[in-house]
Amino acid sequence: MASIRPPRVQTVFDVANWFMDRALNDGEYLQPQKLHRLMYLAQAYHAAAFAGRRLMPAVFVADPAGPLEPNLYRALQNGRDALGCKTPDPQAVALLDSIWRKFGAHSVEHLTRMIQKHPPFAEACATEPGSVITEDAMAAYYGRRAQAASETAGAPGTPGAPAPDQVFRPRVMRSQTGEAVSVMPWLPKRRDPPDGGTAPTS
């Protein structure tokens, strides 16, 4: 069941602005469709890592062209200057940075083909184009282990969604002796509920 906790980031525009700035810093113009794919993946992996909690108050629909956030789509028609944005908190920035590093180098065509084969999108689109892709579906699929995800990839030769621990970038920190150590973000453990019940969430 999706978490009722408030989203980590206040608006969808804050996340969009972060990705557009990051792309500019890397010398890339971020195509609107690619922006929607990256934001979908960010929402999905956040839901997978944090018991269905939303990264942002966004609703992604299964447009035939790929996952789309309708409010952002409409707002960007008026230009980026129309967006009033705040900087996301450090934990959100760490997740967004991981998504960018893992998926940002891919073309919009590659990201679209990949996501279209993932069950959360494919099943919503099969129900009816424009159907909402739920956080429950995102968390269930993108939270799977790497092997399990690859087994449900879709077409032969098409990789499944990477597991969260393959997406989230480890941070380099210093130990008490000054040595560099690699630290992964803490992720809640997924536990199977006893006797078919509902697993507790923190």
Describe the structure.
By secondary structure, the chain is mainly α. Mean pLDDT is 82; it is low at 152-158 and 196-202. Helix 1 packs across helix 2, helix 2 (32-49) crosses helix 5 and helix 2 (32-49) packs across helix 7 (135-142). The chain contains nine helices and four strands. This is Antitoxin SocA-like Panacea domain-containing protein. Residues 150-169, 175-202 are annotated as: Disordered. Residues 152-164 have a biased composition (Low complexity).
| Alpha-carbon Rg, integer | 17 Å
Taken as a percent bin, the fraction of beta residues is 5-15%
Strand tally? 4
Low-confidence stretches: 152-158, 196-202
Percentage of residues in helical conformation? 40-55%
Biggest sheet record: 2 strands, antiparallel
Quote the average pLDDT: 82
The secondary structure category is mainly alpha
Oligomeric form of this entry?
single chain
What is the string of SSEs from the N terminus onward? HHEEHHHHHHHEE
- Quick one: overall form? globular
Distance between the termini: 13 Å
Q: Largest sheet, order of strands side by side?
A: 1-2
Counted by DSSP, the helix tally is 9
